[in-house]
Write a structure and sequence with these properties.
The chain is an alpha+beta fold. It contains 14 helices and 25 strands. The protein has a seven-stranded mixed sheet.
Length: 494
């Protein structure tokens, strides 16, 4: 094992007195977050002791939600003092600001927050190079799911850490060797088919079982680089004696003690081969969305408006190109028309009348399960010229004062039910969120013939719907008349 890194079990036992001393503070934080099922008290203790033993100067949290791990890691900063450590937490969720932060401010001193920075930020476009440049010992808590985030973690963040002391910790993964033989059975569930789905189906590769896509990416990365993907459960089950576990229970209480952790960790410091990293295609695509960047990749279709209309196009600036780009409307829904045109998919019995309501907060949706979703009809797209792409402009309007009540994610989905955009509520181009409307520009390959809007809900919680959703397709000519298709140069092609 790499120098300076102890096992989770050793860290827990060595720091049992420290946890006993700080239990009142930990209890307060758990109560303020109010979501013990998201991170169990024993997991708080496991993560705090493991990270404390490593003694980082910087903790990067990717994905925050209500903030259980956020609070746990910032408590590490308190118990490490006078050793300097800070936490940067990135997430697109509003839960921390709306629910947890007000509770913390009532019961936690202002000094506690001095080591913590929480940002509502898009991980796919964040400048990690700037914030990691001067850090020496870094812990990454990777709790934001999906293959695109995984690509950024493995292809962007980790290369920045390979010459630094670091740990990468992931939860939402279980070690089936230590949770009973019954978990190997499918039961009533079919195959896990990707996405990040806690409704039942799981994927199992070797002894690792999970419902999140990052598990596949992490296993793939560690396998290619011949890295051990360490199981916290294995450490707790094999490294402490019965008498040591009894001492832990006596010191901390049963609620804070478990031989299972349901988290894994790895570090590049254990690499014995030349490291290989995935290319950052997800980040490249996101950074090339936006009005000014789109102009760099636009070319007229040959049979478009004629030679004069496109003369000198490559020599014009991006802004000038966008002036010549009009948009035709494919979909424009608002109010009751929005709801009536949405396909409702509810998976529990009871009827949709109980799940949709018109209120003073607009249209409210009350999901019955985390699987519930809404969708528009599929919109046919014209085939662009060979090698070209379609450009879609997606506008989402949210009424005044309703932003904190919109607890959903909105994506574009193709005819094969694959998501072909990021969350349209969080990936807007800088400067395009005006008057409550979020604008996204999305490039789609010519193989995508139909798209629709898909609305998923966060943890099955009630949500207001946007006031308006519109989709427009880019066409050349100031009038915006249809008939001219958009052709994109392939990004990076010379």
């Amino acid at each position: 094992m790499a120098e300076g890194i102890l096992s989770p079990a050793q860290a827990l036992f060595r720091n049992r007195a420290l946890i006993a001393k700080h239990k009142p503070e930990i209890d307060t934080l758990i109560r303020c977050v109010g979501r013990p099922g998201d991170l169990w008290p024993y997991q708080w203790v496991q993560l705090i002791t493991f990270v404390y033993e490593f003694k980082p100067d910087f903790i990067l949290e990717l994905g925050r939600g209500y903030g259980n791990s956020t609070c746990a890691f910032n408590e590490v900063c308190q118990v490490l003092k006078p050793h300097s450590c800070e936490v940067l937490s990135l997430c697109i969720s509003r839960d921390w600001d709306v629910q947890t932060l007000p509770n913390l401010r009532k019961d936690v001193s202002a000094d506690w927050f001095q080591t913590l920075t929480t940002l509502k930020a898009n991980i796919l476009t964040f400048d990690f190079q700037a914030i990691l440049r001067d850090k020496k010992r870094v812990v990454v808590f990777w709790d934001a799911h999906g293959f695109e985030v995984a690509e950024v973690v493995l292809g962007y963040i980790l290369p920045l850490l390979q010459d630094k002391m670091h740990l990468v910790i992931m939860h939402d993964l279980s070690d089936t060797r230590y949770i009973g033989d019954s978990v190997r059975c499918y039961g009533d569930f079919g195959l896990w088919k990707g996405k990040n789905d806690w409704s039942g189906p799981k994927v199992q590769i070797g002894h690792i079982q999970s419902s999140v896509e990052q598990s596949i990416a992490a296993i793939d990365f560690c396998s290619r680089n011949k890295l051990d993907l360490h199981s916290a459960d294995e450490s707790y089950h094999t490294e402490l004696s019965d008498s040591q576990w009894e001492e832990l229970r006596t010191s901390l209480g049963d609620e804070y003690i478990s031989k299972n952790g349901h988290w894994f960790w790895f570090t590049l410091m254990e690499a014995a081969v030349e490291l290989t990293f995935p290319r950052l295609r997800a980040r490249e695509n996101y950074l090339n969305w936006g009005v000014k960047k789109i102009g760099d990749h636009l070319l007229p279709r040959e049979q478009g408006p004629g030679p004069d209309a496109t003369k000198g196009m490559e020599a014009t600036s991006p802004d000038e190109v966008m002036v010549n780009l009009g948009f035709e409307t494919l979909l424009d829904l608002s109010g009751r028309d929005l709801l009536h045109q949405l396909e409702t998919n509810f998976y529990a019995k009871g009827g949709e009348q109980k799940e949709i309501a018109f209120t003073d907060q607009g249209i409210m949706i009350f999901p019955t399960t985390p699987q519930d979703h809404l969708a528009t009809r599929f919109l046919p797209l014209p085939a662009p010229a060979e090698g070209g792409k379609n450009l879609l402009k997606v506008g989402i309007s949210i009424g005044p004062g309703l932003a904190d009540r919109v607890c959903c994610s909105i994506f574009l989905q193709d005819r094969n039910f694959n998501t072909v955009s990021g969350d349209l509520l969080s990936t807007c181009s800088p400067g395009t969120e005006n008057s409550g409307e979020i604008i996204n520009y999305v490039e789609l390959g010519g193989n995508i013939t139909d798209v629709r809007i898909l609305i998923n809900f966060e943890d099955g919680r009630p949500s207001s719907l946007p006031d308006r959703i519109r989709i427009e397709r880019g066409v050349f000519g100031r009038s915006g008349k249809p008939g001219f298709r958009t052709l994109f140069r392939k990004i990076g092609k010379k």
